Amino acid sequence: MPNPSLLILAGDGIGPEVMDEVKRIIAWFGDKRDLTFDVSEDLVGGAAYDKHGVPLADETMAKAQEVDAVLLGAVGGPKYDDLDFSVKPERGLLRLRKEMDLFANLRPAQCFDALADFSSLKKDVVAGLDIMIVRELTSGVYFGEPRGIHIEDNMRVGINTQRYTEAEIERVARAAFDLARKRSNKVCSMEKANVMESGILWRDVVTEVHQADYADVELSHMYADNGAMQLVRAPKQFDVILTDNLFGDILSDCAAMLTGSLGMLPSASLGLPMANGRPKAMYEPVHGSAPDIAGQGKANPIACILSFAMALRYSFDEGAEADRLEAAIEKVLADGARTGDLMGPEGGTPLSTKQMGDVILQALDASV
Ligand code: IPM
Ligand code: MG
Fold first, then answer.
1. Mean pLDDT for each 10-residue chunk of the chain (368 residues)?
2. Which terminus of the chain has fewer Cβ atoms in its 10 Å neighbourhood, N or C?
3. What is the distance in A from the centroid of ligand 2 to the CA of 250?
4. Can you tell me the distance from the alpha carbon of 66 to that of 125, in angstroms, rounded to the nearest whole number?
5. What is d(CA 325, CA 231) in angstroms, rounded to the nearest whole number?
6. 225 a catalytic residue
7. Among candidates 63, 71, 67, 60, which has minimal Cα distance to 23?
8. Collapsing DSSP states into helix, strand and coil, what is residue 335?
9. Which of 58, 225, 292, 317 is catalytic?
């Protein structure tokens, strides 16, 4: 068997800094666990634009289609704010999602005990929180046609289209139900069926799939605005939240903040199985490129490292090694390791990005 292959697209801002720590973790698994990956690297986002004039070169897209998994850092930055929409850094990311057909975006929001005090919510509301948002990632208003800015009656009109086919709803619903079965067996589906036809279809298809094949899973439906409210009122009522592309974008930022810091949240974007049985996959932290702290060695690498843990679990069937990595992170947090984003009012000296990588590697060493 050849080594599994990884394409690293570190991107912009803090992307390369946090990815440097992931590379050390990957090397550790090769050295100490006999789990060696063939790693290649390329550019995405503003970094790709600077070199190629586009946020994702065709050759990079082709490589992404061939590897077992893509690890992405972050894209974007103020330097690129005035670029034409078609070449903005985000377009590179959206192209990867669309062309790899990564329709199921898994965004776990887990509150580590050591960080329960960092949430903007009361500790007892978030302690022990463990929810999974399954966001549809390749359709809806992000991609629907028609779209654009047109002139009508001498006036500019901005248009985007929310569009979902039954098949698109069905496949992401199945992904959510399958996941729920491995967790607490509950799915809450969120849309706006009270105002949107696409929401009515969403609710109908989710209900049909449930009745046909997943009647053992507990299913509920909620309007997405109520869902946002419930997420901050009593987030522990949820297990898996299933929702569309735009609502998922918003609800996942909200859920992320429950856990104390956006610097902690990983994600997996999964598509159909490839010839080798592994799903098409890309893993990335939920946080962005954080231009305000980029280049200073301050960023928290944990979200990106946890994204690699998700790769171990979902692409490489190495659940026990994913557990090991997650436990190492839990351990260093319990021991008080903190990057700047995790500093409480009591202060202290924050660890640098690299120092956080160091202590996680030490905890990994201690685990074998
Ligand atoms: C996310 C991000 C992206 C999105 C941006 C960077 C295009 O906010 O992954 O949540 O809107 O999907
Ligand atoms: Mg977002």
1. 95 98 98 98 98 98 98 97 96 98 97 87 94 98 97 98 98 98 98 98 98 98 98 97 97 88 92 96 95 97 98 97 97 95 84 98 98
2. N
3. 6
4. 43
5. 28
6. yes
7. 71
8. coil
9. 225
